[in-house]
Each structure stands twice: as C-alpha cells, then as structure tokens.
Amino acid sequence: MTAALDEEHGQIVASMNALYDAVDCGTSLSFQRLKMHAPESFFRHNCLEEETMMDRDGFIRSRFHKEEHRSLYIALHALETAILADNQGNVLKLLDKLRDALISHVRIQEVADWHRGCQVPGAAEY
Ligand SMILES: [Fe+2]
C-alpha cells in the first residue's frame, strides 16, 4: 500500500504539470476540464487511502494532515470554478499556487514514510 501512495504522489505531480501546460497553451475549455479530472481524482483517491491508513494505525499527526487535505480540496474546487469561468490569467495564478501546495504536500510523504517505519520491527514511532 505504501508503494501505491508513492506512485500516486508521482501521478498527482505529473497530472498537475499536464494541466498547467494545457492551460498555459490556451487549449479548449473542454480539454482543460478533461485534464483537471486526473489530478483531482488521483488526489482524492490518495487522501482516502492515507486517511484510512492514519485512522487504522493511529498516526499522531492525523488531524493536521487531514486539515491540509481539506484545504487542498477547497483550493481544487476554486481552481475548477476558475476553469469553468474560462479566465486563463486567473486559472494560471490559482494553478501555480495549488501546484506548489500539492507538490509540497506530497513531497513530505509523511504518511508513507511513517507507514514504512511501522513495518520495520523495532522502528521508533514517527
Ligand atoms: Fe496527504
């Protein structure tokens, strides 16, 4: 399951970059909406898996990590709304901010790393 989280983190970053390129190149609104679907579904799936893992195994920073997920969900919704409004300048601004926040969130990999540590006999709690 931890390897799957790592893979999903990579997919989130790659799909955010693809969405950024689609918007930056001025592709059609329908294509941008299609490109928005990938990072959103990868992120939601990843959060669900992480939150299930945190609840099951008692991750000490669970509340803070979940709050960060909620804040990113809100930013994703704002981005989707901006895409639907077809305002490229605003979309790029929001996308830049969200991409950095998402990359920063998944780069920390605190849940995956903590879970790896849990699987090593005698490993200290994170
Ligand atoms: Fe997370």
Question: Would you write up a description of this structure?
Answer:
The chain is mainly α and about 130 residues long. It has one domain: Four Helix Bundle (Hemerythrin (Met), subunit A) (Up-down Bundle), CATH 1.20.120. About 85% of the residues lie in helices and about 0% in strands. The protein has five helices and no strands. The longest helix is centred in the middle third of the chain and has 29 residues. The chain is elongated and about 45 Å long. The two termini are about 20 Å apart. The C terminus is likely disordered. The structure holds fe (ii) ion. Fe (ii) ion binds next to helix 2 and helix 3.
Low-confidence stretches: 121-126
Number of spatially distinct domains:
1
User: Approximately how much beta-strand content do the residues carry?
Assistant: under 5%
> What is the CATH topology assignment?
Four Helix Bundle (Hemerythrin (Met), subunit A)
Helix content: over 70%
Mean pLDDT across all residues, rounded? 85
- Output the radius of gyration: 16 Å
List keywords for this structure.
126 residues; 5 helices; 0% strand; mainly alpha; Four Helix Bundle (Hemerythrin (Met), subunit A)
Q: Topology, pairings included?
A:
Layout: H1 2-24, H2 29-57, H3 62-84, H4 88-108, H5 110-118
Helix pairs in contact: 1-2, 1-4, 1-5, 2-3, 3-4
Bound molecules: fe (ii) ion.
